Immunoglobulin superfamily member 3
Amino acid sequence: MKCFLPVLSCLAVLGVVSAQRQVAVQEGPLYRTEGSHITIWCNVSGYQGPSEQNFQWSIYLPSAPEREVQIVSTVDSSFPYAIYTQRVRSGKIYVERVQGNSALLHITDLQARDAGEYECHTPNTDERYFGSYSAKMNLMVIPDSLQSTAVRHTLHRVEQDPLELTCEVATETLQHSHLSVAWLRQRGGEKPVEVIALSRDFVLQSSSDYAQRQSLGEVRLDKLGSSTFRLTVFHLQPSDQGEFYCEATEWIQDPDGSWYPMTRKRSEGTVVNVQPTDKEFTVRLETDKRLYTVGEPAEFRCILEGQNTPDRYFAVSWAFNSSLIASMGPNAVPVLNSEFTHREARGQLKVAKESDSVFVLKIYHLRQEDSGKYNCRVTEREKTVTGEFIDKESKRPKNIPIIVLPITDNWVVKVPQHHQILPQGHLESSISVEVASNASVVLEGENLHLSCSIRTVGRPLGRFSVIWQLVDRQNRRSNIMWLDRDGTVQPGTSYWERSSFGGVQMEQVQPNSFSLGIFNSRREDEGQYECHVTEWVRAVDGEWQVVGERRASTLVSITALETGFAVTAISRTPGVTYSDSFDLQCIIKPHYPARVPVSVTWRFQPVGTAEFHDLVTFTRDGGVQWGDRSSSFRTRTAIEKAESSNNVRLSISRASDTEAGKYQCVAELWRRNYNNSWTRLAERTSNLLEIRVLQPVTKLQVSKSKRTLTLVENRPIQLNCSVKSQTSQNSHFAVLWYVHKPSDADGKLILKTTHNSAFEYGTYAEEEGLRARLQFERHVSGGLFSLTVQRAEVSDSGSYYCHVEEWLLSPNYAWYKLAEEVSGRTEVTVKQPDSRLKLSQAQGNLSVLETRQVQLECVVLNRTSAASQLLVEWFVWKPNHPERETLARLSRDATFHYGEQAAKNNLKGRLHLESPSPGVYRLFIQNVAVQDSGTYSCRVEEWLPSPGGTWYRRAEDTAGQTAVQVMRPDAALQVDTVVPNATVSEKAAFQLDCSIVSRSSQDSRFAVAWYSLRTKAGGKRGSPGLEDGEEEGEEGEEEEQEDLTERTALLSVGPDAVFGPEGSPWEGRLRFQRLSPLLYRLTVLQASPRDTGNYSCRVEEWLPSPQKEWYRLTEEESAPIGIRVLDTSSTLQSSICSNDALFYFVFFYPFPIFGILIITILLVRFKSRNSSKNSDGKNGVPLLWIKEPHLNYSPTCLEPPVLSIHPGAID
């Protein structure tokens, strides 16, 4: 071998070794359903010849597994047998070429009769046959039991209505299979759209048309019980209109590990008509004018027109020159761009929702840079079941351009610096001035009203000019307003802006009464208010002259708004449970009038964080503004401000972990300025409130009962996990199944089903290959879970238990694990079936002659399983051999094998086995021999299939023993003499006949020998001429006398017809004849007196053994025959020679007679050879011999011729 590998490598390099053809076919067995379309691939590699190979498909039917039935060929159109011809011609069976060396067999309408063993054969194109040219696989055709049913009807729904449809899916397939269920929608001739589907791996998925809605919970698929699948669409849309139907697919795992859809069924459809609501809306933008002056206010109104707008959700955004100003969602909380946030904080800009259809943008003080194009955009939004919004249709009107012009008139306030006083003796002023106010102490922000009354003595002489001045606490004097004599009002320098906004007004109420109004008072407005009145009269020259002046004042104190400003946070429920509600109160002191705005912001610090973030703000103008990180609060939080106070209550419903943490409210005190801007006067922060959100107290209880389960392998293991009580009717459960083996420290995970019904296989299932054998089921009751391990194996024994996790849906629609508990254990013992194998223990004894047949029977009285396979072994104990020897073995696949003993004892060909009925086995030993004797028995092994498909030996038993004795035939040989004692003359012949009276078998052969009996010296010698009575007396002599007899063989003939040597005294004088199969004759010629004596013949009987070998059965010797030869004194020769007539009679006449006799004897010889094969001798020489005569003729006639026959003279 070491030398061979290098040579082979060299040959491969030189190209001497050619590739080996290999045909591969799809691995079986494949399970397919009736009526389905099946493909089976076949590849060939390592071939020579053209690149395009041909393929021929055949089938071996179960009813005739040895008979090939041809189906289809790529090269021969006449290849199919008649039963397949029509299907091949109609295209229901065809071969598709994938490549030159690969093809697919298609059977479009599979039938039950198509089950069997398929063979793919590739005709040879190689120079020589080398490799495999065909491959086989098994195809199993099973009934199509999948059903998908639904009630067919038509539904009319309105947009936003919910839709629920159910479908029943069931199968009765015995093989382990998985189901996938899908709901589809179809409109007209369009391609169906998958709404939602549950895959064979229990994963939910949707097409792109429904993926977003499915992720938001708008579309659901729920399994109710074992066979009901419910589709739920919470908010129908016009695009959902169409026919909804359910499609079920049954999958089976092929031997290569891939999953194949065996069959697919569609249910009846439900036509759903969706009536759309009128969702059309229009948007227009309005403003009072297009031309403005700096400082003027402007208002833009975005008006929405449509049906049912209060029940719909809209978002509005404002834009200036295509740049975003602000946006407002359906919750009416405006979010301003950073550029406009400062103007909104100063009260110069406002974005608000006046009503469900009117949205307003107000600019209180226009700037010249505000010139440009303004617009609004309205987007309709749809609210999902989770509270999230989805954008729908969006519209915007035409832009509105405005122009803001600068102020062109410069107002200069002229306050007289000196007065021209008339000289003494002229007219003097007789007026007096009195100042009054509405309050000496006012709250910041309240209006201050001052009046200046002029009293005169008599009638006024001229006109009055009035100046209001303020002397603050630092004694700084400032002019507020001036009314000149012509009635023109001019504000002071520092009050000009406030006056332009109407914050300071001066008015001549009556000719002698002047009022000053300071609106929205400020802290700096505190001080001494002085009214300075100047009286003017017209001089002679027409000029106005001052007659006199008077002044009066009053002190006004202004209390700051932030005085006593404080905020406190309280809550009555510091600890709440999931889904409960809790309130937070932010109490603001003191009580401010409605004109004093206070903004309140609730801040929140989630558990586990270090920073607060703004949650929601109740703005100063009554709006609500949510923080950037408050999305989870919006749908569950209500904020309310008391009408009688500035207290703000925050109500949070459906509390969850998200709302657990520390809360704090921050209050800001605001003041509106004269220009409608806002100033934040003070900010106060409340105490901290910690809210703990606790999970519900679990009520989960799992059955702790222990079970012991003992079952036989291949049976299913049914494991139950029962939830006795649960916290909520809406609880979902994750169930983890474990198995604990004695050799393991901890349990190993088999299978996990999550709370959303997803499957996850554990490492134990992967390692042990359990995936295909596991089946999980949740019962309709909801609290019972079952795990079935199909086709249990002994290795599946162990302690099984389930670990149950209770999951609840938090208020923010996130699942959380509330509790977990472990069930009681189920001790599972999987054992092999109890051995019930039993053989008949009947003992037996058989005696049989050689060459006969022996029947040994092995009877199986009982077996463990009808599906088991039996191995039957026959063995024998030979005499004087303690070890048993195997005769034959019948393997499990019914293959007969010879044992060692069969080859040793030449039993091959003589053993025959048959089984006339199940469980009965008969072994026949034909042509038995003596060496076949022994004690026989059979041993039976019972093999069972394991769930994994392998066979194992379950039991064995040994039957009762049968003693077999093979005997040779009983010796029945008897020899008799038919020639009595005789007396003959000298030179005469005497005959010794040996007659066989009976034989042991017709197949026997004989060896014959003649003996001369002489008495040894010293013994008594009987006279040759003794009478019969004397001779009989000698036979009764004792054994000592028999030992004195000397035997001399005359002639012997073996069973194979071979002659022994002639005795020397008789050499040349003996003639042997077989007159019949049982009669032998020896003639002694030319007797002499010394031939006188006793003679006997001994016969040996030989029989053939079953092995065609001859053996001596017995021997028998005839009784002695006495022969006496007389001694004559005259010579016969002289008498004959003296008489011519007698001479010719004696010597010449006998020759023709002897010739005729010899011819007759030869004819008889040849006829006897043909008539009886049993009489043939060795090399075909008959046992009936005739010795050719040897003539001793003396031409001198001195002696007569002598005729003699002796053995060995015949060729």
User: Anything to note?
Assistant: Residues 1150-1171 form the longest helix (22 residues).
